[in-house]
Design a protein that fits this description.
- This protein has six helices and eleven strands.
- The chain has about 230 residues and is α/β, with parallel strands linked by helices.
- The protein has a single domain (about 5-230), classed as Alpha-Beta Complex (Spore Coat Polysaccharide Biosynthesis Protein SpsA, Chain A), CATH 3.90.550.
- The strands form three sheets. The protein has a seven-stranded mixed sheet with strand order 5-4-1-6-10-7-11, with helices on both faces. It has a two-stranded antiparallel sheet with strand order 2-3.
- Strand 2 (about 30) and strand 3 form a beta hairpin.
- The longest helix is centred in the C-terminal third of the chain and has 13 residues, at about 175-185.
- The chain starts with 5 loop residues before the first strand and ends with a helix.
- The structure holds cytidine-5'-monophosphate (C5P).
Length: about 230
């Protein structure tokens, strides 16, 4: 069997409505770069990739502004309605080039603060794994559960085995594509790659990551990401 190669899929077809801006968060500027370019370059600077595909909206007017769009090793494809549709579109666009056993990293376009140590640990811990896994960080806060339609606390949830799922997530190409296709065609909710893989009966492996691998979601996250990047 050939040595598995490593591919990168970046879902970047979101509209980022919680940023209250006409420009989606992945196309906002941070320390002189577009967030999408930062998210990609933190990976390309650390590991050797066989290729990279970025899933964007069909009517995206900003892609041409990115450094990524001028890089021959990076292609783009049309994303879908939900994040999982965009990831699947990215995987399908690699169909002619990727082998079932190859690895795929999937990384949010809106996570510009991935530390190289986390990426290296993810790739080395999973290299012998049959399925794959994800960066995640232990839940640090006490968790409260409310009932439907009320803010009255019903319960404090035991957090001892709970983790916050981050990206990159890294899976075998064939397993991830089949899992996403099955989940989406069954209409099951898929909020990250691992959840689709779990639904197929596999057990993704957690690799502990740094909690500062934040996803830009609200405007205040831009200042936090600026600070974090100034410290790396
Ligand atoms: O909206 P959220 O922060 O969960 O999006 C996470 C990532 O998924 C972002 O990089 C966003 O651009 C991407 N996404 C996508 N296609 C969608 C929705 C989100 O590629 N339909």
């Amino acid at each position: 069997m050939t040595t598995p190669r490593l591919w990168l899929v970046i879902p970047a077809a979101g509209s980022g409505q919680r940023m209250h801006s006409s420009r989606p968060k992945q196309y906002q500027s941070l320390r002189g770069n577009l967030i999408l370019d930062l998210a990609i370059s933190r990976i390309t600077a650390t590991v050797t990739l066989a290729g990279c595909v970025v899933a964007i909206r069909p009517d995206d007017p900003w892609w041409g502004e990115t450094r990524a769009s001028k890089d021959d090793r990076i292609t783009c494809c049309t994303g879908g309605r939900e994040r999982a549709d965009s990831v699947l579109a990215g995987l399908q666009s690699l169909q002619a080039r990727a082998e079932e056993n190859d690895w795929v990293l999937v990384h949010d376009a809106a996570r510009p603060c991935l530390h190289p140590d986390d990426l290296n640990r993810l790739v080395s811990r999973l290299s012998d794994h049959g399925v794959g896994g994800l960066l995640a960080t232990p839940v640090a806060d006490t968790l409260k559960k409310t009932g439907a339609g009320t803010l009255d606390v019903q319960e404090t949830v035991d957090r001892s085995h709970l983790w916050r799922a981050l990206t990159p997530q890294m899976f075998r190409y064939g397993i991830l594509k089949t899992a996403l296709q099955a989940a989406l065609s069954a209409g099951r909710p898929v909020t990250d790659e691992a959840s689709a893989v779990e639904q197929s009966g596999y057990f993704p492996c957690i690799v502990e990551g740094r909690p500062d691998n934040i996803k830009i979601t609200v405007p205040a996250d831009l200042a936090l990401a600026d600070f974090l990047l100034s410290r790396f």
